[in-house]
Amino acid sequence: MGLQEKILSKKANIGIVGLGYVGTPLAVEYAKKGFKVQGIDLNKKKVAMINRGENYIEDIDDAELKHLVEEGRISAKTTYEDIKDQDVIYICVPTPFKKNKEPDNSYIHDSVREIAKGLRKEQLIILKSTTYPETTEKEVLPILEATGLKVGTDFSLAFSPERVDPGNKKFTTANTPIVVGGVTPHCTEIASLAIRQVVNLVHTVSNPRVAEMEKLLENIFRSVNIALVNELARMCDRMGDIDIWEVVEAAATKPFGYMPFYPGPGIGGHCILVDPYFLASKAREYDFHSDFIELAAKTNEDMPFYVAGLVRRALSSNGIPFTKAKILVIGVAFKKNIADMRNSPATKVIELLLERGVPEIKYNDPYVPSFKLDDGREMHSIDINPEVIQSFDAVVITTDHSNYDWPMIVKNAKAVVDTRNATKGLQIGREKISKLGSGTRF
Ligand SMILES: NC(=O)c1ccc[n+]([C@@H]2O[C@H](COP(=O)([O-])OP(=O)(O)OC[C@H]3O[C@@H](n4cnc5c(N)ncnc54)[C@H](O)[C@@H]3O)[C@@H](O)[C@H]2O)c1
Question: For the domain that residue 172 is a member of, what is the CATH number?
Fold first, then answer.
C-alpha cells in the first residue's frame, strides 16, 4: 500500500518527535481521527505520563487523552527504535536561542540524525519547529539524503509551521489554517494530504523557504506592533495625562485597517521573543541587517527595565528605598490564564529588582506553584489575602490572570504598579496605582 492510500485509509502510522505544547495536541488530533500515533521524547517523565494516560498540557482534555492511550491509539517512547514503522513523522522539538541570542537548531539536528537511522522509502517527514529560512533544505535534507535515499522519489520532506496558541479556546489545532511547503511538488501534495486529516484548511506554498519565512513574518509582525505600542505607552507616561489603554481601546473601534496590540512588562514565551532573532541572524549571513526586527526587540526587551523604574518611583513616593522594600509580584506566567513560564518578563522584573537591592520579593500565581530564577534560586508562590498584601510595600502586577480579585488587591496594597491594565475602571485606591502608559512621569 502506498503512503497516499495509507493516509486515506487511516492506516498510516504517525510518529511525533517532541511531546510538548505542539507535538502532544497534534498526537491527540491524529489519534482522535483513528490513526495510531507514537510519540518520541527524550524526557522520561513526559513519556511515562503519556503511557499512563496522564495529561500535562492545559489545552488537552484529560479524559480524552486517557481514553486514547487505553485504546492503544497513543503510546510514547524515549527512543527512536520504532522510527522505521512510522509513515508520517512530525518534528516538534524546541528551537530556542542561546544566551547570546543566536539560534540553536541543535535539537532539530539531533532528532533528524536519529530519524535518518531508520529512514526508508515512502516515509514523509514534516518539520514543525519554528526556524529560519533554508533550514529544511540546507540542514535537514542533507542529513536525510546522506542515507542514500532521495527526496521526492524515495521519501518526502516538508516544512509546516505551527500556529497553536496555548490557552486559546476558539482557535485550536483543527480549526486553525495551516501552511505547508514541500521540497518537491509531490512532497507538498503528500504533506498537505497528511495534514488535512486533522486540520480543516491547508494552504500550500511553493517551497519550504516560503513556509519558514511566513511563520517568522507572523511573529515578527506581532513583535513590531507590540514594540510600537510599548513605545507609545512610554510616550504617554512622558506626556502625562493620556492613558494608552484607552487610546488602544478607542483605535480598536475602527473595523478595518487596525488590530489592537497592548503594552506590557516585556515579551515572553517561546515564539515572539525568540523568532525575530532567528531571521535577523540568518539575514546577517546575507549582509542584511533588519532594522525593524532589531529595533522592536530592543524596545520590547527594555520594558522590564522600565517597569523596574516604575516600581522604584512608586516606592519612593511613599519614602521607601529599594534597599528596604518588600515587594509582592502578582502573576508570573508569560501571559494570562496559562502556566507557561518560558522567557516570562516577570522573571526578568524580579531579577532586576533583586539586582537593584530589593531585599524581599515574593510572588503569587495560581498557575505557577514554583519556578527558578536564572541564578538557580527557587521561588514559591505564596497565598494572598488582605493581611498578606498589607505586609508588602508595593504590589507589581505582571500578569493579569482572570481569577484575581483586583479590588481586594488594590484596597489592601500600599502601592500598585499595574503593567497590564488589570485595575481598569477601579475607583477605590486609584491614587495608589501607577499604571504603565498612563502618565507616570520620570
Ligand atoms: N508552544 C507554542 O505555542 C508554539 C507555537 C508555534 C510554534 N512553536 C514551535 O514549535 C516547536 C516546539 O515547541 P513546543 O512549545 O512544543 O516545545 P516544548 O519544549 O513544549 O516541547 C518540545 C519537546 O521536545 C523534546 N525533545 C527535545 N529534543 C528532543 C529530541 N532530540 N528527540 C525527541 N524529543 C526531544 C523535549 O523533551 C520537549 O518535550 C518550537 O520550535 C517552537 O518554537 C511553539
Answer: 3.40.50.720
Same domain, 123 and 201: yes
Q: Which ligand 1 atom sits closest to the C-alpha of 165?
A: 3
Say if 287 falls within a structural domain. yes
Residue positions annotated with a catalytic role: 271
Closest CA to 213 of 177, 179, 175: 179
Q: What is the average per-residue pLDDT within 201-211?
A: 98
Give, using CA atoms, the residue closest to atom 24 of ligand 1.
Answer: 18
Q: Does residue 217 lie within any of the structural domains?
A: no
> What's the rounded Cα separation, in Å, for the pair 342 and 233?
24
Give the pLDDT confidence score for residue 439 in this predicted structure: 83
Q: What is the pTM of this model?
A: 0.91
User: pLDDT tens-digit profile of 156-202?
Assistant: 999 999 998 877 889 988 899 999 999 999 999 999 999 999 999 99
Of 161, 174, 205, 173, nearest in space to 187 by CA? 205
196 and 232 in a single domain? The answer is no
215 domain residue, yes or no: no
Residue-number span of the structural domain to which 343 is assigned: 222-435
Query: Per the structure, how many domains does the chain have?
Result: 2
Query: Does residue 372 share a domain with residue 232?
Result: yes
Provide the pLDDT for residue 440.
64
- Dist CA 21 CA 342 (whole Å): 12
Residue 380 lies in a domain: yes
| Encoded amino acid at 43, one letter | N
Q: Which residues pair with 91 in a beta bridge?
A: 17, 127
437, 236 contact by CB (below 8 A): yes
Which atom of ligand 1 is nearest the CA belonging to 43? 37
Residue 59 has pLDDT above 90, yes or no: no
Instruction: Assess whether 273 and 137 both reside in one domain.
Output: no
DSSP alpha helix (H) spans, 40-168: 44-51, 62-70, 106-117, 141-145
Give Cα 408 distance to the centre of its chain.
Answer: 31
List all residues whose CB is within 6 A of at least one atom of ligand 1.
17-23, 40-43, 46, 92-95, 107, 110-111, 128-130, 162, 164, 166, 270-271
Backbone φ and ψ of 244, nearest 5° = -60, -35
